[in-house]
């Protein structure tokens, strides 16, 4: 048995259909009594539902959470939090809303209760992101890890299929890269394999029957596992490429993850046979990259970067950026190799 180091993270997880009802008790358990509710403009109704549910523990709401956490939005939310003298933030939504809660925790000592409604997984990680003047910075800080997370799959029933599918594959990408991370260990690999299994066996049903509660619960369970894996280990070429394409070319986060994953998996396949074996076992497929490609087809995902408005003549520029400060990766990261990967991903060819 190989030696390993595992930095297990704290956090109180409540999982199950209808578990949103435990929110008020959870706030009391944390010793908090003055709550700020965070949402995006699209989820104001869910924010109002939380307000009703927690009664006089509610003191303020802020509903302008925005993708990639712009610092001016954080400033506005912090003003609201200070004016209302809040002691706890409840964020209901996806990675954008959770990200805003994390940014507030970074600049205050507020506790966070996260109620995820997508499969992004941010609620399980101590990773924050902030965007200022168009540049996104990320970092790790234990203060931003939500104190409690309530996973209620009923809240995901309204997540539209075109967001649900890519959001779920984004979570699978966390698991795939966790399997070959330089700091992977037997526990994170177990979590990642189970995460791939739960997500890959439920996503097509989630997309084709969005109201299927069993599939929604399984996908959210997979997302929880994916977030736990992402939290514990470093990511590699796949995430580097997605950060480059999202950050420098303004492409949508989850869609980029979805398109790139089969090709990044192919790129690393030879260098990581054990990880590939685990992905195949989890998905019931003979070839990891092909299995992921077929999963994308089954959820009706966009097939190539060309479908996201990316320009073919930007491939070289993207490869330059992605290879400048590469993350640790099992296969050597070469500009030539990355250009081929991006060209295949641009056209959406079978990997
Ligand atoms: P998102 O939070 O922006 O949500 C996408 C849209 O779906 C929003 O309009 C949102 O209001 C809406 N939505 C969410 N849940 C819904 C529901 N149940 N019903 C109806 N509409 C709903 O997108 P995301 O993919 O969850 O998060 C992406 C962001 O999270 C990115 O900025 C990414 O960098 C970040 N992220 C961070 C980490 C981390 O560890 N820090 C991990 C993963 C993602």
Descriptive notes:
With 351 residues, the protein is α/β, with parallel strands linked by helices. The protein folds into 2 domains: 145 residues, 3-Layer(aba) Sandwich (Rossmann fold); 187 residues, Dehydroquinate synthase-like, alpha domain (Up-down Bundle), CATH 1.20.1090.10. Helix 4 links the parallel strand 4 and strand 5. Helix 6 packs antiparallel against helix 8 and helix 9 packs across helix 13. The longest helix is centred in the middle third of the chain and has 20 residues. Bound molecules: nicotinamide-adenine-dinucleotide. The site of nicotinamide-adenine-dinucleotide has 28 residues, from helix 4, strand 6, helix 5 and helix 10.
Question: Key features?
Answer:
351 residues; alpha/beta; Rossmann fold; Dehydroquinate synthase-like, alpha domain; 2 domains; six-stranded parallel β-sheet; two-stranded antiparallel sheet; 51% helix; globular; binds nicotinamide-adenine-dinucleotide
């Amino acid at each position: 048995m190989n030696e390993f180091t595992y930095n297990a993270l704290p956090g109180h997880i409540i999982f199950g259909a209808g578990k949103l009802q435990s929110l008020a008790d959870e706030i009391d358990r944390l010793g908090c009594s003055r709550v700020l509710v965070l949402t995006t403009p699209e989820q104001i109704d869910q924010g109002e539902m939380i307000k009703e549910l927690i009664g006089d523990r509610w003191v303020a709401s802020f509903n302008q959470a925005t993708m990639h956490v712009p610092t001016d939005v954080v400033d506005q939310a912090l003003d609201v939090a200070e004016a209302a003298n809040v002691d706890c933030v409840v964020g209901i939504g996806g990675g954008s809303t959770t990200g805003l809660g994390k940014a507030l925790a970074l600049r205050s000592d507020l506790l966070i209760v996260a109620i995820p409604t997508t499969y992004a997984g941010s609620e399980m990680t101590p990773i924050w992101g902030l965007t200022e003047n168009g540049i996104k910075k990320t970092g790790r800080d234990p203060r931003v890890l939500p104190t409690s997370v309530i996973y209620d799959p009923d809240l995901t029933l309204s997540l539209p299929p075109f967001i649900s599918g890519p959001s779920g594959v984004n979570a699978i990408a966390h698991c795939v890269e966790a399997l070959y991370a330089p700091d992977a260990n037997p526990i994170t690999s177990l979590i990642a394999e189970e995460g791939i299994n739960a997500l890959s066996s439920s996503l097509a049903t989630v997309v084709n029957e969005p109201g299927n509660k069993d599939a929604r619960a399984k996908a959210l369970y997979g997302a929880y596992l994916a977030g736990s894996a992402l939290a514990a280990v470093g990511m590699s070429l796949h995430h580097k490429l997605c950060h480059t394409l999202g950050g420098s070319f303004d492409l949508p986060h989850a869609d980029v993850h979805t398109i790139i994953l089969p090709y990044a998996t192919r790129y690393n396949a030879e260098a990581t046979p054990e990880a590939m074996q685990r992905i195949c076992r989890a998905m019931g497929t003979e070839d990891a990259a092909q299995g992921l490609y077929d999963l994308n087809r089954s959820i009706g995902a966009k097939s190539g970067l060309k479908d996201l408005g990316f320009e073919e003549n930007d491939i070289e520029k993207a490869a330059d950026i992605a290879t400048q400060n590469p993350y640790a990766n099992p296969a050597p990261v070469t500009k030539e190799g990355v250009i081929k990967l991006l060209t295949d991903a641009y056209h959406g060819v079978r990997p």
